[in-house]
Amino acid sequence: MTATGLKQLSNALATPDQLSNSSSSIDGVPSDLETSIRVAGAQLTQTAGVLLGLSQDIIGQAIVIFTRFWLGADGEAYESTRPRYDVSAAALYMTAKLSFQPTSPRSVLNVYTLLCSSDTSPLWFVNPKGAPAEAPAMESYLLTEGEYQSARLTLLRIESVILRILSFDTHVALPHTIALTYLQTLGATRPAVARRVVEHLNAALLSPQLLYVTHQPNALAVAAIYLAAREDGIKLVDGNWWEVFDVDREELGFLVVGMRSLEGFMRREMEQWKNKTIPLLVDDVDSEIERRRMMVEGE
């Protein structure tokens, strides 16, 4: 395979400076709150993409773009790099625009208005009361012309900021197709195994360990296959087969543990934020930080 072909199957990974000095941490956001907001932003992106009828490939790329932007440019602080709903919207809009499924700014903004309303949203971290029993009236989330023009300008401005922070590198290689190719190579053709592999890869997009920006797609594919085979009781080829795909035992072990821990992490998140909203606006983040500071001072 040519060097260009190999590049298309790999990603630019986060640097140590980005991981230890994300823009949010520089801005004073506690690490646990930062993680909660980022994971909520990824879930918001996923749900919005589904409502817009976008393919999982486009949605996955948008989540990776969102995560890269959240990390900042090599630790560079920027006031808009806190994870929030308009960054999610801009990442999804931009990714779709560059794909075979472009969607209009109006459609994106209407969907985000629905999802970010504490009255109409089906998302547990936006609407703790739960999704309304009846579908909300369109008037409750369709923007007026004035609101739309203002929101559209914000969307396009943040899109330009994302491009600047990422140095216009919007390439994202996902591991899903690679994993299916590896399964065929290993002779593991059971549909149930393939389905479980894809489920693990989709869930890993929400990983608090930032698996998609710290490991290459081939390693993610191998870890999902290993885990799915173990869960389904499928014996793959003898020997350290993962080494054939350029993954060592240490990296495989880390990724498998990370993927397996996601379910427990999400349960803890839902318990921690039970009956509360995760702040997705800068002002709300500041209020949560102040609330925590006052609690510490009051002890």
UniProtKB/TrEMBL annotation:
<dbReference type="GO" id="GO:0006357">
    <property type="term" value="P:regulation of transcription by RNA polymerase II"/>
</dbReference>
<protein>
    <recommendedName>
        <fullName>Cyclin</fullName>
    </recommendedName>
</protein>
<dbReference type="InterPro" id="IPR036915">
    <property type="entry name" value="Cyclin-like_sf"/>
</dbReference>
<dbReference type="InterPro" id="IPR043198">
    <property type="entry name" value="Cyclin/Ssn8"/>
</dbReference>
<dbReference type="GO" id="GO:0016538">
    <property type="term" value="F:cyclin-dependent protein serine/threonine kinase regulator activity"/>
</dbReference>
